[in-house]
Q: What sequence folds into this?
């Protein structure tokens, strides 16, 4: 299981919101099962799927990794040496995690919220908004709607999402 949540981190503002973010950055929190995927593999994805040398246009959108302990810091530094071609140009901040503030519900699973039909069907499967937000299936569907993942990947897992046949076809149309 991987659970992702959007939120705010790295600043001093108490109880930040999207409209009052203060000195925080928008970020995601990833909870994962290390028996299924390693922290190093997650870091590989991080380092290889974005430009860690780009200058952020604001603190809100900066590139950062927040670590919880020395083992995570060691893994971050190790994978950076492996996957970053020009380490001297890296702008990604590596910062100890102080507190993660979960963002407002309307920021969670943003791409899925743009498809009213899929959203309605999926919401009906969960007893609460928190359960919906924390669902691995919902996170996966949101990823596909955001352009992540291939048709082959989708076909391997689409039946596990519990969607109606109409929603499965709707999701397939979004994946290139």
A:
């Amino acid at each position: 299981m991987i659970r992702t949540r959007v939120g705010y981190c790295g600043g001093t503002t108490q109880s930040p919101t999207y409209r009052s973010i203060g000195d925080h950055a928008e970020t995601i929190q990833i909870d994962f099962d290390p028996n299924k995927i390693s922290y190093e593999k997650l870091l590989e994805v991080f380092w290889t799927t974005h430009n860690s040398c780009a200058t952020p246009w604001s603190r809100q959108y900066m590139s950062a990794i927040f670590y919880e302990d020395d083992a995570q810091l060691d893994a971050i530094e190790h994978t950076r040496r492996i996957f970053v071609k020009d380490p001297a140009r890296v702008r990604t901040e590596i910062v100890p995690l102080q507190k993660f503030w979960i963002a407002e519900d309307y920021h969670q699973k943003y791409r899925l919220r743009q498809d009213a039909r899929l959203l309605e069907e999926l919401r009906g499967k969960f007893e609460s908004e928190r359960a919906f937000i924390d669902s691995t299936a919902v996170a996966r569907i949101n990823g596909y709607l955001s352009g992540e993942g291939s048709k082959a990947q989708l076909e391997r897992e689409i039946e596990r999402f519990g969607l109606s046949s109409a929603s499965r076809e709707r999701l397939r149309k979004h994946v290139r």
